[in-house]
Structures are given as C-alpha cells and as structure tokens.
Design a protein that fits this description.
3 helices; alpha+beta; 3-stranded antiparallel β-sheet; rod-shaped
Length: 96
Amino acid sequence: MANELEERGNALENEYFHRQERELLEKMKAKMASESLLESKLSCPKCDGKLKEIGYESIKIDACEKCGGVWLDAGELAQILGKDEAKTGWFSRLLG
C-alpha cells in the first residue's frame, strides 16, 4: 500500500513538472514569434535598414535609420493633412 502511494505521488509530481515545462515552452514560442513578427515589420522597404517609430504631431510614423526614408501606415497621411489644415506646417507648404 505504501508503495502504491509513493508511485501515485511520483506520477503526480512528474505530471506537474511536465505541465510546467509545457507552459514554459509555449511562453517561449509565443515570445519568439512576437519578436520575429516585430523584426519583420521593422525592415525598410528601400534599403533593408531598420525602421524606428518616431512621433510627428502626436502621430507615430516610421523612419529608416539608414536611408532616412519615412513610411506611413494606412490613414497616417490623412491624419497629418488634417492636423496641417492651417497651411502653416512644412507638409502643407511642400504640397501647396
């Protein structure tokens, strides 16, 4: 009887550690996938440099650290133009 209890305890202990290892592996895989996704989003389409998020008039835009190119996400150009309606900003002067 004592041997059966010891075996049951060992089985429960092994199950516990197996579950802990599986959860840790899932967390590590999720972290690696998010880092990989983040890295793929941060490549400059022109020169393969790294894009860095910068703020312009409280709008987050992407600028390449290598070539200086500026990349806008969907809707960001409209936001910039909307904030620059007074025709006093450099962007309006550039287009106007």
